[in-house]
């Protein structure tokens, strides 16, 4: 399965990332584009899925240190910012059997395999999405779909800096869950762009298994 990877760099606004995804979705729907993976580090922002329950953002969103954006994915609040790698696969699900459950599991598996490249034993947790190290959350998954074109994707904390913004929210609505980073767990410096490239190869292979 063809999947093209583009590293967009650091300091990308959420609006820029969203617009790029939307253009890629429309291109695929017109029959002109192919599957894309955009990877980047966002400027600090909180996002939340379209849900009536916004308790994960706290009682007073005006007091949050960064802006909040509601988006077309599942899930409660999360944080994006410097030191965190965000991956946006824009993927046509129609040739893949339209199975979002398996697609999400493959996103998780690609991240787990990439963590293994750094000597880290990351895992899944029963009944919860994302990637974990024991009971500490390392990566979040949130997928939106338009006419069976998947967008949004994953966010994995790479450096210690990526953890700061989580202190003001209840990440993914999971009370009592601690958030961790790859550097915290591995004890070594990790380059986001390098991790993105390794993960791209694992994800490309995983998607081929769905065909």
Can you tell me about this structure?
The structure is a single chain. The protein has helices spanning 14-29, 100-117, 182-186, 192-208; strands at 4-12, 36-42, 45-49, 68-71, 78-80, 84-92, 123-125, 128-133, 136-146, 149-157, 178-179. With 211 residues, the chain is of the alpha/beta class. It has a single domain, classed as Bira Bifunctional Protein, Domain 2 (BirA Bifunctional Protein, domain 2). Strands 1, 2, 6, 7, 8, 9, 10 and 11 form an 8-stranded mixed sheet that branches. Strands 4-3-5 form a 3-stranded mixed sheet, with no helix packed on it. Helix 2 crosses helix 4 (192-208). The longest helix is centred in the middle third of the chain and has 18 residues, at 100-117. 40% of the residues are buried. The mean pLDDT is 93.
What is the element layout, followed by pairings?
Blueprint: E1 4-12, H1 14-29, E2 36-42, E3 45-49, E4 68-71, E5 78-80, E6 84-92, H2 100-117, E7 123-125, E8 128-133, E9 136-146, E10 149-157, E11 178-179, H3 182-186, H4 192-208
Parallel strand pairs: 1-2, 3-4, 9-11
Antiparallel strand pairs: 2-6, 3-5, 6-10, 7-8, 8-9, 9-10
Helix pairs in contact: 2-4
Q: Number of DSSP strands?
A: 11
Per CATH, the superfamily is Bira Bifunctional Protein, Domain 2
Number of helices: 4
CATH topology: BirA Bifunctional Protein, domain 2
Query: pLDDT below 50 for ≥5 consecutive residues: which ranges?
Result: none
Computed structural class: alpha/beta
How far do the termini sit from each other? 8 Å
Query: What CATH architecture label applies?
Result: 2-Layer Sandwich
Estimated radius of gyration: 16 Å
Query: Helicity level, as a percent range?
Result: 25-40%
- Provide the domain count: 1
CATH structural class: Alpha Beta
Strand content: 25-35%
Largest sheet: 8 strands, mixed
* Mean of pLDDT: 93
Shape: globular
Which series of helices and strands comes N to C? Answer: EHEEEEEHEEEEEHH
């Amino acid at each position: 399965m063809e999947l093209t990877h583009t590293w967009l760099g650091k300091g990308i606004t959420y609006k820029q990332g969203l617009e790029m995804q939307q253009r890629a979705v429309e291109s695929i729907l017109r029959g002109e584009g192919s599957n894309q993976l955009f990877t980047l580090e966002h400027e600090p922002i909180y996002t939340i899925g379209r849900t009536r329950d916004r308790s994960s953002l706290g009682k007073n969103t005006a007091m949050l240190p960064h802006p909040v954006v509601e988006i077309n994915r599942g899930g409660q609040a999360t944080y994006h910012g410097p030191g965190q790698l965000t991956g946006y696969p824009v993927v046509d699900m129609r040739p893949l059997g339209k199975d979002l459950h398996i697609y999400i599991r493959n996103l998780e598996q690609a991240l787990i395999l990439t963590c293994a490249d750094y000597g880290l034993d990351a895992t899944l947790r029963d009944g919860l999405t994302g990637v974990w190290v024991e009971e500490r959350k390392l990566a979040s998954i949130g997928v939106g779909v338009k006419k069976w074109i998947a967008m949004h994707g994953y966010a994995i904390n790479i450096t210690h800096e990526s953890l700061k913004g989580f202190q003001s929210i209840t990440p993914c609505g999971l009370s009592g869950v601690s958030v961790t980073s790859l550097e915290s767990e591995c004890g070594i410096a990790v380059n986001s762009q390098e991790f993105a490239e390794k993960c791209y190869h694992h994800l490309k292979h995983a998607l081929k298994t769905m065909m």
